[in-house]
Write a structure and sequence with these properties.
Elements: E1 7-12, H1 25-48, E2 54-61, H2 68-81, E3 85-89, H3 104-122
Parallel strand pairs: 1-2, 2-3
Pfam families: adh_short (PF00106)
Family: Belongs to the short-chain dehydrogenases/reductases (SDR) family.
GO molecular function: oxidoreductase activity, acting on the CH-OH group of donors, NAD or NADP as acceptor
Length: about 120
């Protein structure tokens, strides 16, 4: 791909890459690592290997089941678009990406609420 300066790399992560909650730490760590890898790879392809036409797309989804067709249709549409992107499914959760920019005390309140809601579901 680098030699031909053409291709598309897809990274599948999760909304957990943006917000970690209790009882989900190891999962969130792997998804945060996937997102970090994706971002770094995109930069290396563009600046180190001079291959800006090798596109990268990462797909984030909330921690509930989506219909496989919903996910696959969004991914295929993005691949055919020929542009790199960040897909967030369902789209109504796009705002979660911005949580990392909130003050740390506010992020902690959000994580507390998520962990508490997860506890009640586990009971």
């Amino acid at each position: 791909m680098v030699k031909q300066n053409h291709g598309h790399i897809l990274t599948v992560a999760s909304m957990a890459s943006f917000v970690t909650q209790g009882k989900n730490v190891s999962y969130a760590c792997t998804k945060a690592a996937a997102l970090s890898f994706h971002e770094g790879l995109a930069q290396e392809l563009k600046h180190r290997y001079n291959a800006p036409k090798v596109r990268t797309t990462d797909k984030q989804s909330q921690n509930f089941c989506l219909e496989p067709e919903t996910v696959s249709d969004a991914i295929v549409d993005q691949l055919y678009a020929g542009e790199g992107a960040q897909l967030i499914l369902p789209c109504r959760f796009t705002f979660i990406c911005g949580i990392r920019g909130f003050p740390s005390w506010f992020q902690e309140l959000i994580r507390d609420a998520l962990t508490s809601s997860r506890k009640s579901k586990d009971s």
